[in-house]
Amino acid sequence: MSRTPLAVLILGAIAAVAVAGIVELAFLGNPLAGVVLLVLAVLALLLALFVAIREPDEEPGESVQTHSGRMEWKAPSQRDDIR
């Protein structure tokens, strides 16, 4: 599973937990449960941010020098073609 959909799922869970915490605090009168839910939402947000920050910008690969001396980025499956 790619990290982007995972981050989206985590952010959806954060929203659900945060809404549940706010409803608990505002309408049901048990502030301790609401605070616990909000703390869990903040922890989930930190996890989602960690996942999003660590997401690579591009596929794994490397810069390789071609026969003409130019540097090009190649995916692992293409490396043998240019050396």
Automatic annotation (TrEMBL):
Keyword Transmembrane tagged: yes
Keywords: Membrane, Transmembrane, Transmembrane helix
Source domain of life: Bacteria
Biased composition (Basic and acidic residues): 69-83
Chain ranges passing through the membrane: 30-53
Disordered as annotated region, ranges: 58-83
Official protein name in the record: Uncharacterized protein
